[in-house]
TrEMBL record:
Residues 56-68 have a biased composition (Low complexity). InterPro entries: WD40/YVTN_repeat-like_dom_sf. Residues 32-68 are annotated as: Disordered. This is Putative Fe-S oxidoreductase.
Length: 495
């Protein structure tokens, strides 16, 4: 057969067609060539599929992935900043199902499986640096813990006036007190408590001649004028010291003892400070007494009295020739010509008719030589011509006149303790009102009248059991405790 015959032409073109078909078939089966991942021009974004369809794939930084049901979202490694520990890198997992993000194991799709919640960010402690995770809000540092327990009701900001209308911290009779009674049962304030004010622990109370009531607390000074209550504190810039320990009034100005010196104010807004440079025995002031003419100041290092020239004269262990065995003066009273100073070595009495340097001008009553039940004097008052002393072991009344003590007579004491009706043996405060001596103990309030004792406890509306301060003001008894201030009308107590 010749080359140009029809049979040869048909065979040639038929073979060529078969060859072309074979090449096309091979190319279709192999698919397109993969993209070059090493160039860095286009990041590789695999497709992740869930029951709801394909999801946008993340870049190698972990951003842009939305987790669907059955799919775990990748967690990006946070950047390391100053003060933050190194975060270990996540190693790539072995070859897994198609679509698994780099470094994050895939979860098999499941229609019944709920969506996986975002990872929980650990709380960052105080002083630590928060770690930001892309796509999630940063966690703010936790507030630093308080150095001391916060009072049940914190004092309002200085200058804030609160009317006694039942709004905190004022509680009127018939309302529930803030502190629960036994077994957590709320207590109702009885009618004899005409005012209850929750405030920081009370150290001293004073009814001023102008009708205002002043309260020394662990956080500053409280002022009650009419129906207004004003708090003064260092935090608000209205009081110069952190706490107030004791109070006295000379008819014109208020004196406030603190652990940072002695302060004087006439209006409660401007304060004049006195310290050791002014003749004060020490700047830690524990007790004050105004005898009508002279201000007496008990300190950590003896006591001082105010001279007419505005300076203080110091009476310490050296001047008194050993009359004060311990220089700390926790209780101080001027009674007639006698100055009574109590500390943890007993009760020292100075006859001011003699120089303090004269040993004969001093006597000391203690538990070793004078029959006192305890040497620690916590409270001191003069009531119905008798000296009453509060100690950790009860209330003591000195029945021997002071002048006879200086003549050599032995002291005679009468003692009241829990066994004689007191709520507790530790007596912290004393105050006389009318024919009644009121006794503040660590376990409640008591009244002593005509030799009979009646105890008043938290079940009777007392805000707290530890009575720390007492003061008479008109017909009312003011009671201070660790929970605040209360006013008791004794006339309503027996109704």
């Amino acid at each position: 057969m010749s080359a140009g015959s029809p049979d040869r032409s048909l065979a040639f073109w038929g073979g060529l067609a078969v060859l072309v078909l074979l090449v096309v078939t091979i190319r279709w089966t192999r698919g397109p060539a993969p993209a070059d991942l090493t160039s860095g021009s286009t990041p590789y974004a695999p497709t992740v599929s869930g029951p709801g369809g394909p999801l946008a794939g993340p870049t190698p930084t972990g951003e842009g992935l939305t987790a669907g049901p059955g799919v775990r979202a990748p967690v990006a490694v946070p950047a390391v900043g100053p003060g933050v520990g190194q975060v270990p890198a996540v190693a790539p997992s072995p070859a897994g199902p198609v679509g698994a993000p780099v470094g994050v194991p895939a979860v098999a799709p499941s229609e019944a499986a709920p969506a996986v919640a975002p990872p929980v960010i650990p709380q960052v402690g105080p002083g630590q640096q928060s770690v930001a995770i892309p796509g999630l809000p940063a966690v703010a540092p936790a507030p630093a813990p308080s150095a001391a327990p916060v009072p049940q009701v914190a004092a309002p900001a200085p200058g804030v006036t609160i009317l006694p209308t039942g709004k905190p911290p004022v509680v009127t009779p018939g309302q529930l007190a803030g502190a629960p009674g036994a077994a957590g049962v709320p207590r109702v304030i009885p009618a004899w408590w005409v005012l209850t004010v929750q405030m920081p622990p009370v150290n001293a109370i004073l009814a001023a001649p102008d009708g205002r009531l002043w309260v020394a607390t662990d956080r500053g000074l409280a002022e009650l004028a009419g129906e207004q209550i004003t708090f003064h504190s260092r935090e608000g810039g209205s009081f110069p010291a952190a706490q107030a320990t004791c109070l006295a009034h000379d008819g014109r100005a208020l004196w406030i003892g603190t652990f940072e010196g002695l302060y004087r104010t006439e209006d409660g807004r401007r304060f004049q400070r006195f310290g050791q440079a002014d003749g004060l025995a020490h700047e830690m002031v524990w007790s004050l007494d105004w005898d009508g003419m002279v201000l007496w100041v008990g300190t950590q290092n003896g006591f001082s009295f105010l001279l007419p020239n505005g300076r203080f004269e110091k009476v310490d262990k050296q001047i008194s020739n050993g009359g004060l065995a311990d220089l700390w003066i926790g209780a101080l009273r001027k009674i007639g010509r006698w100055v009574l100073a109590g500390n943890d070595d007993g009760l020292s009495i100075w006859d001011t008719g003699s120089f303090a340097a004269n040993p004969a001008a001093w006597i000391t009553l203690d538990m070793f030589s004078s029959g006192l039940v305890h040497n620690w004097i916590l409270a001191l008052t003069h009531f119905q011509d008798r000296i009453y002393v509060g100690t950790p072991h009860g209330l003591c009344r000195l029945d021997t006149p002071i002048d006879r003590l200086f003549s050599g007579s032995a002291p005679a004491w009468e003692v009241w303790t829990r066994s004689r009706g007191l709520p507790g043996d530790r007596v912290n405060a004393l105050a006389g009102l009318g024919d009644t001596l009121w006794i503040g103990t660590h376990d409640g309030l008591a009244r002593l009248r005509s030799g009979a004792v009646r105890a008043i406890a938290m079940a009777d509306g007392l805000l707290a059991s530890d009575v720390r301060a007492l003061a008479a003001g008109g017909d009312l008894l003011w009671v201070g405790s660790s929970a605040g201030l209360q006013a008791l009308n004794p006339a309503l107590l027996d109704r």
